[in-house]
Amino acid sequence: MLNPGQSLPPNPPPHAPFLQPNVITHISTIKSNLLAHSRYIRDTLQPHLSIPGATLTSTELATLKSIFASISAIPITLELLQYSRIEKAVAVVASGGGAWPADASLMAETLLNRWEERVGPMKNVKADLWGKGGRLEGCRKVDVGWEAEGMGLGQERRGSAWEVEFPGAGEKAYAYGHLGNEIGAWWLKPAAAFRDGIIDARHHSITADEFGAYAILLEGDSERPGAREAKGKEASDPVEAAALKLSGVNKWCHKHDNVERPTIRFLPTPGDPGIPKLTREISRGNGIRVLRMAKLKSPLAPRVGVRYDGLYRVIAYSVGPSTTDGKDRCIYTFQLARLIDPPQEGIEAALAHPTADEMDDWKDYRREKAKEKGANLLSLRWGDSYQERKKDNDSGYFSLTSEWGKNLLRGELE
Question: Residue 164: CB partners within 8 Å, gap ≥ 6?
């Protein structure tokens, strides 16, 4: 730990080993440590200092200086920066804005100068999204065709869909539990979540096979909150209890442990082949993985991308008739309770994502796609019929009806 006014240790030689006291540290450990340091600065200290009048405690300041001292001994590489985004965290402190102490800002500026001597300007550091270990490794877009009805643009237009280059990637998803994923695990696109085996190929919301249902991907209007229930109101009869749940309660007390569990209501798309399998889970009590997309109309949705929010149990469901497009359909509503046995982190751990570094990767992705598609998208001034069709078929991230798409069509995107 550095004392106030103490300078950073001298810059290590270019090929110095990655060392901690008396231990040769593996590169993956260094990456993880740098990422943890980056998130501590940007997701904990920076929001705290944004509050008027807030300052760092003596412990927080000592921790910050200790972080700078430890990372100064690491011969930084582009790979380390791309993974951890530590340069952005250090730049926040170096800016001196807010209540960052002057000596900490000076230490941060010294670090940035050293790193620029090694890898070049920090502003040029971008995520290697499609490279080895990148967020979109093995994922790519492929062209697909669709009819351009009534648009006067020929009989067929081209669109795109995601493809994953890992054979059998989705087969891992046909199992219960977390499957090694932490609460809050985050992906740029559903294709990357499929690649990592937490959901199957994204044709439907429910990941299921002939033996059961294992995961749910929430988007659009598929999630509804439960309404308030008077405390202590509980039915002892299972049928009455199920009716009570479906009336819109948002707390569910198990009769064996009387523990309240937060609940949500899930409305799958009519015709989803996983619905029958999900109804069977009510008697099995297995934990179903729940993921939320940014397109989900819910306060729990991530700002961007796809996030894993933990295990839920199906506690009830109802079926009601509905007529859409002149067709009679059955609408299923499932009541899901967050699982606490076995124990798992609360939803608060998931809501911390996407973190600042994950948002950096999203912004890099968006810039890449804007450069790649900008000229083509700017030429797509084909009227409302095209935009409505596009809204129904694209991923939503680059919909021309979104604010981003409108800005792009107006030429206001940077």
Answer: 138, 139, 191, 194, 195
